[in-house]
From TrEMBL:
Keyword Ribosomal protein belongs to the record: no
Protein name: NAD(P)-dependent dehydrogenase (Short-subunit alcohol dehydrogenase family)
Domain of life, per lineage: Bacteria
Residue intervals of the Ketoreductase domain: 19-193
A Pfam family annotated for this UniProt entry: adh_short_C2
Organism of provenance: Sphingomonas vulcanisoli
Amino acid sequence: MAQHSPHREEAGLRPLEAKVIIVTGALGGIGGAAARELVAAGVHVVATDITPAGDEALAQWGADASFFRADLTQEDQVAALVAHTLERHGRLDGAFNNAGIEQHGKPLTQLDAAEWDRVLHINLGSMFFCLKHQIPAMASGGSIVLTSSILGQVAVPNAAEYIASKHAVIGLMRAAAIEGGPLGIRVNAVLPGAVDTPLLRRQFDDPALLPMMEAVRKAHPLGRFALPEEIAKAVKWLLSGESSFTTGATISIDGGFTAT
């Protein structure tokens, strides 16, 4: 009979409402929706973002959420976030590593080194630091979800730095899934299509971008943008025991964009 790791058994049996989960980029559209979804399910959420306004937002979420401000491009601050979580809750069961920024909207031949480095450092470097410090903290196993993008699978013009970072996130996720498996730690990625967030809405304020945005909307066979809550529900599933045999997977939530 196959032997089962105690890590796997404990991680698989612990109900979602008893878990301690870090959510990064928690004051953004997708991160905020995920944090609220998890809190509503009874999860103890440690939310983090670079902005200092987190305590005000969390006051509306409930007693099971706390905020820790951190710049995730700084490894010492990531280490402090994980240490804070362990000190406050005594364990770490999961993480939704979601923080990131958009592209500069330039052809790659016009990108300067600072613009390239900034996107790669935030979108990819922060993921590395989070995984590096979260995995050792998950003594009883756990689940980690990374936010990539449909542009982690396909490409469009004028987004080379963003596309490179999101493709790399998928590679990093797969490497972490291979290393985390024997520890009972699952690692997966969600790949959203265009999501109706404040960031997307700001682009509608630019008349020059309206034709492009309409083309992007029509490129989704469902004919609309995703709601942040639709991404959040998939994240919750991946963080729960209901996805206990899912690891190293990319979950496209793109309204059919990559099916065309």
